[in-house]
Write a structure and sequence with these properties.
By secondary structure, the chain is an alpha+beta fold. Among the domains are: about 215-305, no CATH class; about 340-450, Immunoglobulins (Immunoglobulin-like, Sandwich), CATH 2.60.40. It is about 40% helix and about 20% strand. Strands 8, 9, 10, 12 and 14 form a 5-stranded antiparallel sheet that branches. A 4-stranded antiparallel sheet has the order 13-11-15-16, with no helix packed on it. The longest helix is centred in the first third of the chain and has 27 residues, at about 130-160. The N and C termini lie far apart (about 95 Å).
Length: about 450
């Protein structure tokens, strides 16, 4: 007795239809973007480059530094809220149309069909003994798969290493250790996941399949089989009245099972293995059209509709998701539009609160950290306000900062004790680039001293 069922290979039948068209379009668009974007240029450099050694991300005209990591956090929040929203509306749309596992599996299945033929030919060849022809066909398929996977891994690394230079280094096999590792690792993962594991990734490895039910309700659009209309199922001749034979509209052709990439039978109800690719809808509608029955035996519907109730697509939870999504997206857009690629941190000297210098002035010492988040070097002017006739001494240091550089600048401020009305007075440091009126930042600090009598 075994606790584990032996895995049986699934041979998805090719299907056409409106949902297949949109799924194919999604695959072509997403793969096209993945392979094309690293080759785009912007202002003399790669348009999208995640430069980890340089600690900066180039995204077209935007450059993000480690200090901008909260933008990545915001993008992750937007992705999560989008997933919640679209799942609540129409189930696992992400899985069926945009998930990388689905996208690359569709590409590998297309290659397999071009070389091995359609579903019956594949099944017949796998059951046949090994011959020279079978070895050539299988070998050709895997050769194309491996080349495709290698280019996928190469493109992946091209997002982190300038892809033009990476291509030149790969031609002469002069790549670094980490570049070589990630190209082959990502290629192997693509070849294994899309070529062999396929639906097993969705069923056993993907956590989304396990918690998706938490985002479903009875008004979520799901792919369902109309049991009241279809049962009892059974074969019949074309033109026969199913009611005379006591049958429903389902002719039990099993095509809905044959086209399913995860091998489930949609007629058994909603199952966590369903990735909402809608292949069963396309093929069932074609069968219904051939036998002269109304379409929609398998369709997008809701539990309420199947039970004879009224569907409420617009419901409170959707508005909550949408409102949160709009707030986060709006905040992110505003923050990026008003972003100033300059930061100033002021650290007060904690060793001495203040001291009196030889001229009788009260002196405070600060350490300023200037961070240039722009793509080019700048020189800056530093001023201070908050106390009348406040003197600023930065020594002989010239405030010049290279792109991405952080400099530390010791600063002394001196004030006449007669101008100090409180023991702690708020002051402001003003830093502005000499070559740009927009590159400026203000930072508040405290000036400590005795109160004048």
């Amino acid at each position: 007795m075994s606790f584990y069922a032996k895995h049986e290979k699934i041979y998805p039948r090719k299907v056409t239809g409106i949902f297949a068209f949109w799924r194919t379009t999604g695959v072509l668009v997403l793969l096209g973007l993945y392979y094309a974007v690293p080759w785009l240029s912007w202002d003399g450099r790669q348009a999208v480059l995640l430069d980890l050694p340089g600690r900066k991300f180039y995204i077209f005209g935007l450059t993000l530094w480690p200090q901008d990591f909260f933008y990545v956090t915001a993008l992750l929040i937007i992705a999560a809220l989008s997933l919640f929203f679209f799942t609540a509306v129409a189930g696992r749309l992400w899985c069926g149309y945009a998930c990388p596992q689905t996208v690359w599996t569709e590409a590998f299945l297309w290659i397999e069909r071009q070389i091995e033929g359609d579903r019956p030919k594949q099944m017949k060849r796998d059951q046949a003994p090994w011959t020279l022809q079978k070895i050539l066909v299988k070998g050709s398929k895997h050769a194309v798969w491996i080349v495709f996977a290698l280019y996928t891994g190469f493109t992946f690394v091209g997002y982190f290493t300038p892809i033009a230079g990476l291509w030149e280094k790969m031609l002469v096999w002069d790549m670094g250790g980490w570049e070589t590792f990630w190209i082959f690792f990502y290629s192997f993962a693509t070849w294994g996941n899309a070529g062999f594991m396929r639906e097993q990734v969705c069923i056993y490895m993907c956590p989304y399949a396990r918690f998706q039910s938490a985002m479903f309700d009875k008004d979520t659009l799901i792919i369902s089989y109309d049991e009241k209309r279809g049962e009892p199922r059974g074969s019949r001749r074309k033109g026969e009245d199913p009611k005379e034979k006591g049958l429903g509209d389902c002719i039990d052709c099993t095509l809905c099972v044959q086209v399913c990439p995860t091998g489930i039978d949609i007629r058994n109800g909603l199952q966590y293995q369903c990735i909402a690719c809608a292949s069963c809808i396309d093929v069932c509608d074609q069968v219904m059209e051939k036998v002269g029955y109304p379409k929609g035996l398998v369709r997008y519907t809701t539990e309420h509709a199947l039970q004879g109730g009224k569907t409420h697509i617009l419901r409170p939870r959707l508005f909550v998701y949408l409102a949160l999504l709009m707030v986060v997206m709006g905040s992110l857009a505003y923050s990026m539009a008003t972003r100033i690629p300059l930061e100033l941190d002021v650290i007060r000297d904690r060793i001495a609160l203040y001291r009196e210098n030889n001229e009788g002035l009260i002196e405070n010492v600060y350490l300023l950290k200037v961070i240039n988040l722009d793509n080019k070097a700048h020189q800056y002017n530093l001023t201070v306000s908050g106390i009348p006739d406040l003197q600023l001494d930065i020594g002989n240091n010239r405030i010049a900062v290279s792109p991405g550089e952080v400099i530390e600048l010791p600063v002394r401020l001196a004030a006449d004790p007669t101008d100090l009305k409180k023991r702690s007075t708020e002051i402001h440091f003003h830093l502005q680039a000499k070559d740009s009126d927009k590159l400026k930042v203000d930072e508040a600090a405290r000036f400590l001293g005795p109160v004048s009598r």
